[in-house]
Queue: 3 jobs
Job 1
Amino acid sequence: MFRSIYKLSTHFNNRCVMGTLSRGIAEKHPSMENYFKGKSFIVTGAGAGMGKVITGRLLGLDAHVFAIGRDIESLPCKAGQKMTRITVDIGDWESTYCKILEIGPVHGLVNNAGVAHIEPFLETTQHGWDDTLNVNSRGVVRASQAAAKNMISEKILGSIVNVSSTISERAIPDHVSYCASKGALNQITRTMAIELGPHGIRTNNVNPTVVLTKMGKIAWSDPKKSGPIMDRIPLGRFAVPNDVANAVIFLLSDYSTMINGLNLYVDGDPTIKSV
């Protein structure tokens, strides 16, 4: 008798568990696009390349974008769009912090601003080294400090996305300062994920291969330079700005609420880091 009661109880519990799981699986989730409506985001380096595309994508999702760049004239400007243009040099420690703190609470930050000084190792200059590290690494820290402080003050479960690179882990010639800055950024992101996670703020990297922005097309137009890299990419092509924007939008959205401290490689390569 007791065995029958035990079996009945177990069967009942199993049905309850499966019913709960089934409801969870079947539960409708709002579309990713709906998440962005009425929310605010900061994009640094919004005046060109990937930053301009990411800004445009967020505006298209009905979000308000604080577009940051060194040159106000290069920043997007279209009537009717929810955008605030802000001029600041992300490599400037104090200005970056003050300007972003003044923005107030936002739901996400995209640290896209970056520079690259192409110099052989033996000819690397102090200016090239300092400018690259100041923008690509130190600037990310300072911008994120201000944005995170504002998120925490309003208890916003936000997302910070840092644009790194596959050459954060694979070196190529003439890029010592750039490789160093992106390698540092990987560790910055991991540390931010640990320390900001308890506040409900997620921090992740997007690590693209060569991206065919306007400047990227010029820099990688020589087949002798681009060919060996292309040969290592099974998809047979370099990335375009929208490939990177897709990854950024995903990591900003509530479709990635359990992803924290990740390097998301946008390189078409499932085996080794191509570039």
Job 2
Amino acid sequence: MRRTWRDMTNSETTIVMDETKNLTHGGGSSRMPSQSAVQTTEGENVDCIQILATIASILLMILTFPIAIFMVFKVVQEYERSVIFRMGRLRSGGARGPGVFFVLPCIDNYCKVDLRTVSFDVPPQEVLTKDSVTVSVDAVVYYRINDPLKAVVQVANYSHSTRLLAATTLRNVLGTRNLSELLTEREAISHTMQVSLDEATDPWGVKVERVEIKDVSLPQSLQRAMAAEAEAAREARAKVIAAEGELKSSRALKSASEVLSESPAALQLRYLQTLTHISAEKNSTIIFPLPMDLIRPFMNLPQENQS
């Protein structure tokens, strides 16, 4: 008789569940297929207390039918899913929603999970790079819930856990890079962090979509040293460029002198061009060079008088 009573009770519960499924399906809602391997103990080791509680809940719903409608029918939005527990046991069939779903009063409770992408800032972390330089780095992480069952059952607080893991992963990844790599390879570092976080949060049903490094703060002393190094490098390049210019100009002057030495008239033309240029800019000053052929006889006179 005890086995028969239990079978009858299970049959009634199954009928109520089937009706609830039909109502839910008819209301235009759908269930999110479970992609996880979360095990449920619903239907296992069912004792008399659970059976009596289920029957009492059904009777209460029938007796208070007009009022019970507001208690047994729940609504979740398009971007939400609901995970239902019956007397502490996870309901089979996966997460419910979006739309209307059915719960029994007093013995069922549910938890809503938001499936939209969430972003948070990783607090600035003091990181020691591979070349022993202390820098402060902060980042931003974008994630969403990929499996509502895992997010509710496998971890106590998926949001807080993801934030702590992101801060730890940031320190670990940056500790393997040099300062130059940290400043020039931000995209590669962000991708490495995203892959590492995604693998670590997959058992929690969390999908890390994107990680971006926002800012890298260097100490003031290091900034001054890097600025001095950059200034010295620029001065060295400027000196090299100036020396190369002097070399090219000297070669050009040598070529010009060879051309002028071949034709004495060219030197006179160059002299006239110089006078024209000077008179156009500074007409109050005129430079009149004398040929050495005219000055040489006068330079030889003192030597002849001494002899």
Job 3
Amino acid sequence: MEEMNVEKNQFTSPCNNANSNGSVVNKSKSTPAKFPLTFWEMAVASGVVLSFAVGLVGVYLTMPASDYSFLKLPRTLEDLQILRDHLESYTSDYTIQVLVGYCVVYIFMQTFMIPGTVFMSLLAGALFGVFKGVALVVFTATAGASSCYFLSKVIGRPLLSFLWPDKLVFFQAQVAKRRKGLLNYMLFLRVTPTLPNTFINVASPIVDVPYRIFFLATVIGIIPAAYVTVKAGIALGELRSVADLYDFHSIATLFLIGIVSVTPTLLTKNQT
């Protein structure tokens, strides 16, 4: 934590300056907090939201007339089971609509850092099985992360400085130190819960992680966790809480995979 504070001081402007007599003069002023986005940045974000809304409306209009009061973002396992029970009857007859609706919702949640994608991953397993479910989750998670990456190029910096200034400075320093083995480091972050995936998505373009590396690390790195979650979705009725997904064995396995991913970088450093 002390290292993070030192790095933060290197990236932020000093509030105290010395005058000609050597004494320290405090020039900081208490200014009211301002919303970090400009009008045009908000317009871009609103346009993205509108495009997702149009996609969902299109799916809704092509579905048969019925009571869709069950359609809502699941926040508990009970909500998810109700959603699964209703969607199972539509999946076989309206597969395209269900797939498109699922993809739009998942990508929207990833783009705007809305929590709850773990429930969507469970739903993929419950509706489509392990193989198709993992492929669907990897596709939507990568598309959503990419959408967040490019949107962050426009509105990310002020939001990150406003929400996670310490994490941003830490991440920027780590990326700068690992430029030669950046892919391995990004794979490690994707596989392990060292940093939240939502933060990685929005912070990567700000700290100059190339999209090629970001994309490869996302596609490969989320497969292990996606497999664990999707497989659990098949036995959805046996889950008592989301915490059951990641027991000690699962967490240890993910960290082991993460360590293996950074081993080439460590070996290269030792040889040099």
